[in-house]
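User: quick one
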Amino acid sequence: MDFQGFVITLISIITLFSITMFIALYSTFAERKVAAFMQDRRGPNRAGPGGIFQPLADGLKFFMKEEVIPVASNKFLFVLGPSIAIMSSLMTGVIIPWGGQLIVFGNTVSLQIVDLDIGILYVFAVLSVGVYGIMIGGWASNNKFSLMGAIRASSQIISYELSMGFSIVALLLVTGTMSLHEIVERQHGMNWNIFYQPLGFLIFLICAFAETNRTPFDLPECETELVGGYHTEYSSMKLGFYLFSEYINMFISSAVMVTLYFGGYNFPFMDQLLHATGSQNLVTIVGTILLFAKVFFFIFFFMWVRWTIPRFRYDQLMNLGWKGLIPLSIVWLMLTAAGVLFFKS
Amino acid sequence: MQSFSSKKKVIEQKKMTLLERLYLPAIFQGLGITLKHFFKKKTTINYPEQKRSVAAAFRGLHVLKRDEKGAERCTACGLCAVACPAEAITMEAGERRAGEEHLYREEKYAIKYEINMLRCIFCGFCEDACPKDAIYLETTFAPANYDRNDFIYGKDRLVEGFKRDEIVPPVVRTLEEANL
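Assistant: Done. Structure below.
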């Protein structure tokens, strides 16, 4: 890699990192506002105009709190847990195509940092590492509630990763490629995958809720039974890392969903816009803005569901995963395969 | 078994239909309800800036009233303290001196009048007991303080339109010193 390419990659990674952190920061604020609005309240509105500085105050509070490491815990793993959790959730963002080509001073810059041939596999691999953060943290706390939360998290993710995988396989049958860049390119204009894979999307969506530990699948941190679940013993910024990684995961899964099923940065009439203005940069920027709009809608949807549906019981969760979603996703996979065979030959 | 009261209800537990077991219609219904609430008018208010109106008979913090000439009505009879079920009121009576007619309506008045707002239960019995119409419970409420002692309200915080220089040296005006 030449020096110029290195600098461009470095800049884009830092930009992506700050954007991800910023969105995660303000997701916490949005969550509180959405919760309040749905419960006919006003939500935080004291720090700054409309409460806009509330996340900064929350972050500051996390840094100022006393850092407690339990005596009976395994100290190395106790620190390692949240680090893995936040690291793995930050790693996924690099392969998502945030936009098309941008022409800056004659150089063509892609808004996707790395275009891997096996993009989806990378997402899956990194997402699965994330559960290690929860498991290690829960186990290292040496607390029964934490351990219960950790066990729940891992069994839940194993159960739902299967059907998520099947729904992705069905998608791959339609697109014929694993590269996220090409998957997005194939959904040019309004040719989105959601129209070919409605049930696959539904399965993927449900599994995404389970993978990010969001309600109605937030059993690992279920307050009513497990105090705080896997992060019961955590305090200060280490707790902040866990909470943050949940919001980053939410952002990234929304981005993956938009990329896979809702056309990524594609939007209807993009060819007409390119033809009318002749500016590729304009189309790219509009596409990126629309991509973020779609992502924000899904983040809102995550919150919307959280404040609507109660939590599943543990046996219901396992029933739904093993007896509901996995057979359904297999059937959908077969139907898709038959459809591809029928229409493409 | 036959029910002896008419209150017994037989609850039927029907098996869920396929559509109900899918959860999804119910979930979308629920999402619709929460979205409706999202855009609804909020029921809470921005408290310190906005306040809810209170009933006309609301019993808030006490006020020691003055008469139409601006003299204090209270004669330190002590009936309010007797009526108080929480024993929150204490007072010391003193004699009005010449030239203080504009300050106190009658010859006897309260040198010290204290209500402990932590003890007070805001029942309003003091209001009922007062023969001089001097004490009233008005609509201000929710005192907040850092110190328990600050909840003992003296005349400076009770008397309507109190001016600090009205109590001419309070130290020499206590009952014991007056008797000397």
